[in-house]
Amino acid sequence: MASSGSPFIFATGIENSIPTIAAGKVRMDEMEKCGHYRHWRRDFDLVQEIGIRFLRYGPPLHRMLLGARRYDWSFADEVFPDLHRRNLVAIVDLCHFGLPDFLGDFQNPDFPDIFAEYARTFALRYPWLQLYTPVNEMSICALFSALYGWWNEQLHDDKAFVTALKHLVKANLLAMRAILEVRPDALFIQSESSEYFHAQSPAAIGPAETMNARRFLSLDLNYGRRVDSTMYEYLLDNGMTREEYHFFLNNNLKHHCMMGNDYYQTNEHHVAADGTTRSSGEIFGYAVITHQYYNRYRLPVMHTETNLCQGPCGDEAVRWLRKEWANVLRVRNNGVPIVGFTWYSLTDQVDWDTGLRENNGRVNALGLADLDRELRPVGQAYRELIRDWTEVLPTQSVCLQVPIALNEDYPGLDAHPSSRTQDSAVATGAPRNTE
Known about the structure:
InterPro entries: GH, Glyco_hydro_1. This protein is an alpha/beta fold. 37% of the residues lie in helices and 17% in strands.
């Protein structure tokens, strides 16, 4: 089923964050804010016009997962067959920073099992889909929700952070296992923020070292790697049991994975002696930090997110695109198997200038296109980059070894998914089309 020569993955994404704020009363639904529910066909047109083949794309979890084994497939039944008809390859992003109201938040121990069943049913319903990011940026989600107090549970302590993190990673692992039961050749691209913490003074070396160890926790647990001794004590001191820790060691699905590294100007930090941090801007850059992650996990790498706001000169985002692409080439030329690059997202976003902490409705000029669906200069530059490099990279790159089955390779697509179930929109209990 694999293509004889897998392409380099030039991608973009539809921003689909859904955290809650204001004690759960306000849902920050980026698909709604950015107009994707209304303009999804035009958004898919834009992807094709730019020359992009791969799309990081996630259906709205809070609208689809209505309860344990209760689903509303109506929106997904429109968009995923349309992506297939267009021969666009989805990298399916199933959980992006938020949960349905009935699950509450990431402190809920019921989340992993319910989510895994959703993932299994999703894979059965859309069998041509091969590439998944079950849970996006597990570390950032746990930090922002349970340590920084920004989203969802809005807690501020280490125990809440460890609880959120273990539930997020367990959900990711159980979802991967469930999808593999349906599609044994599924591939998982873990999109995770690649961070680094710089000590601002000698007195800050200790706090910086702790934060630089903590940045690896989500991937260590996900890939079944023994954590550092200080992090082992940290986990157990904050509520993880030995049995839970060994669950992660014994559920290693690393051989089905590619490591997605996200990098923005805000990913590097200065650390003060008291442990407070502030953004340092780019110091090491994507190539240096990605080598740190690659040396730890030895997995194929994909640059799964980056962007920069189009500023007053109009070329700031274009210059950042060229810098990040140069970093990708440096990583590749240094022998790391790097398989793809992503400008995130397709359109401008809303309220990310406050980290989705405030519901201001302020547009952030981060997209390849604006919210009128007109290409920005960076969209035009990305189209040219894809055109210039598409034919060059596959003939020289180890990405040829990645067994991606493109849409035209999949023989099993039959009727529209809704015709395979007796419920056109909502399936309650075991989905009838999969029994």
